[in-house]
Amino acid sequence: MTDFSRDHVGLSDHFASRRYFAKFEAITAHLGRVAAVLHTEDRLSKEEVNVIARYVRGLAFTFRALSLKYLLVGRDTGQFFGSLTMDDHESGFPVASELLVMANDAQQAARHLDSLPEAKALKAQMVEQIVGAQTIPTRLQYALSQRLYYEELRMGQLFWARNDPEARWLEGSHPRTRYLLHWAVYDSQVNLPVIYLMEVEDTGRTALPVDEQRWPEVQAHLMGQALGGLKLLTIAKAFDEAFDEVHPKRLRRLHLGPMYSHSYTRQSGPIRDVLAEAHAPKGQDWTLAFTLEELESERVIEQRAGWFGTVQREVFALDPFSGRSADTGATRTDRMIVLPERPFQVLTEKNPPGFATVRKFVVSPQGRVLVY
What we know:
It is a single chain. The protein is built from 11 helices and 11 strands. By secondary structure, it is of the alpha+beta class. It folds into 2 domains: 152 residues, no CATH class; 210 residues, no CATH class. Strands 3, 4, 5, 6, 7, 8, 9, 10 and 11 form a 9-stranded mixed beta sheet that branches. Helix 1 runs antiparallel to helix 2, helix 2 packs antiparallel against helix 6 and helix 9 crosses helix 11. The mean pLDDT is 90.
């Protein structure tokens, strides 16, 4: 059995923990702008950009909640509450168990909030302790951080370990209606968020999202196939064969990460030297990789079903110009990175092998995104 714990580290230093969360606050803000750039290039539709933006916002809310949970890490609060555990090897993100614990906390958020004083009362007690006893109210600060954490969980709209499929109407009506199905998971094998987008044509009598029989089956099937180790071709063909009236026309999978930082991760390869030599100023010591896989239906064929019936099956296109198309199981795969200006300058100077075909989205401190 693989021991993943050797790639995990706890952020027990207060200032290192705060810088880590500030780093991801900036990264998630940039990702929305990157998606907008891909939309202007017709790589993503408006609906897909809206879906991705929603998951990115959820990811930002998740990091905000975790930052509140571990706000007092490294301080003597009189309580042992641990520290954020992150994958410092090839992920840079929190380990999946952090999201699983957070989901459990969300189920009990109301009970915890009932047992904690209101934020206003806690702040009043802090002022009284600072002025009266002239001591730092660390325990009250801890209580307030936990209250804010549970309030964030109660508001919802976070990125969970499992984000079940939803359907968006695109066009058409019976007998052929086109939907965008989307779902997302936090891959526990690599500790990274993964977003799935599937365009389908529905030929059923009842609209798919309100079909009491088919829709729960579709949701369960897609979540059961949401494994990073499965090829898109495997997922799409299994779905096509499982549902005769729902035809997958295009499937996309977006891997967000890994995040590399010279201060936080033990990355390998050229990016390690780039970040080490960049000596980037505060907030700019990072690089985020993301991969967009895409599988498209090339044509439709008829297959016999039963004694007299036929069903339509999709034939998916693999990249004819890639010798690895059979291995990747995708029509195309785009590898991209997002990074600040200083690491990009060093990357350009070093020009390491393998990065010529990787698209670079360079973000400025003002938030502008340039594509190279």
